[in-house]
């Protein structure tokens, strides 16, 4: 019931980043409407599949497919192998599918792990990245934004005389997929699969307030050595006894700044979409968060200003407690599977 100590070793498959996630929706056009308001850009359509991208280097970060049986499904996340050697190493892990062409913009190859609990994990390699101007952040909301003035320093006055902060309504454009995770009935077995085979290492582990030897939540990062990575790319929550099957809790997407966060929140609210929780700031990871429900009921998050860590930051273990520094009260159904009614 307590998570074992985890370290990265060269024998494990080294992954460099998360690339994209897969979903199936009953009403693909309704989701497409939501996706635009959420800040995705449609990269390409191929039949009943839409590839959505952010403004990062990945050709797409969200694959939306029309559900054949009308029920919403999560198809797992895809991670980029650090090299062809690492990709071939992944193909030798028990349960790996044979490599096959990766459908969608950018090409490449993919290996899929179909887990016994009905979830999926994918490893890709050879996909062609988008060319990105990292000095320019695309926006649908900012007419002009300069540096931030503080009580004792006014950089905007010194550097940009006559310029003012100016904004207008619009969606919060997505940069990339940041993380996803499960409420997991097979918590210990799945934790072992991910951390034994890949360079996935917990940044923070939380244990039950009444049962100190029961770890209930793990925020897991990609260990890139001295290179910094997001505080977590993947997370796992131990499912309560009443949960019948493992389900995705939420997927999360990075945006640029706090103004974008609030403007995006207002845009989604005015469009009539369902807010779940936010805007607020998390404790672990420090992200400014904003959670919504898509038309299928999947929870989906905007985040900004998240922590980054490297190998010098050791795993921390603490009691499970409040998960926000500030923001609205945590909804009672925040941990629930909001797609359950549509799947019955």
Automatic annotation (TrEMBL):
* Single GO molecular function: metal ion binding
Q: Name one GO biological process term.
A: L-methylmalonyl-CoA metabolic process
The UniProt record lists the VOC domain at 176-305
Is Secreted among the key words of this record?
Answer: no
**Keywords from the named record:** Metal-binding
Q: Which Gene3D superfamilies does this one have?
A: 2,3-Dihydroxybiphenyl 1,2-Dioxygenase, domain 1 (3.10.180.10)
> What cellular component terms from Gene Ontology apply here?
mitochondrion
Any single Pfam family the record assigns to this protein: Glyoxalase
Q: Which InterPro entries match?
A: Glyas_Bleomycin-R_OHBP_Dase, Glyas_Fos-R_dOase_dom, MMCE/EMCE_epimerase, VOC_core
* Protein name per the record: VOC domain-containing protein
């Amino acid at each position: 019931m307590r998570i074992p100590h985890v370290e990265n070793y060269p024998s494990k498959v080294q992954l460099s980043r998360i690339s994209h996630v897969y979903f199936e929706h009953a009403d693909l056009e309704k989701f497409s409407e939501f996706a635009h308001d959420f800040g995705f850009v449609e990269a390409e359509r191929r039949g009943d599949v839409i590839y959505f991208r952010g403004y990062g280097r990945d050709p797409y970060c969200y694959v939306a497919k029309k559900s054949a049986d009308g029920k919403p499904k999560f198809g797992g996340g895809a991670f980029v192998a650090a090299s062809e050697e690492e990709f071939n190493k992944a193909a030798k892990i028990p349960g790996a599918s044979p490599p096959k062409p990766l459908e969608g913009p950018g090409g490449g190859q993919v290996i899929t792990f179909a887990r016994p609990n009905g979830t999926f994990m994918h490893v890709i390699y050879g996909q062609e990245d988008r060319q990105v101007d990292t000095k320019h952040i695309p926006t649908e909301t900012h007419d002009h934004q300069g540096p931030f003035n503080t009580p004792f320093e006014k950089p905007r006055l010194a550097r940009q005389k006559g310029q003012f902060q100016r904004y207008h309504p619009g969606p919060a454009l997505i940069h990339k997929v940041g993380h996803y995770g499960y409420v997991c009935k097979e918590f210990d077995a799945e934790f072992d699969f991910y951390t034994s085979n890949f360079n996935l290492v917990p940044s923070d582990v939380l244990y039950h307030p009444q049962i100190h030897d029961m770890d209930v939540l793990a925020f897991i990062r990609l260990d890139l050595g001295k290179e910094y990575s997001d505080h977590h790319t993947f997370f796992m929550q131990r499912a309560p006894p009443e949960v019948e099957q493992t389900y995705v809790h939420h997927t999360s997407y990075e945006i640029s700044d706090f103004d974008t966060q609030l403007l995006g929140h207002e845009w989604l609210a005015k469009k009539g979409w369902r807010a779940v929780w936010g805007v607020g700031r998390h404790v672990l990871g420090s992200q400014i968060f904003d959670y919504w429900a898509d038309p299928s009921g999947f929870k989906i998050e905007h985040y900004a200003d998240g922590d980054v860590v490297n190998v010098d930051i050791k795993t921390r273990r603490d009691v499970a407690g409040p998960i926000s520094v500030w923001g609205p009260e945590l909804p009672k159904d925040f941990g629930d599977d909001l797609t359950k009614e549509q799947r019955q």
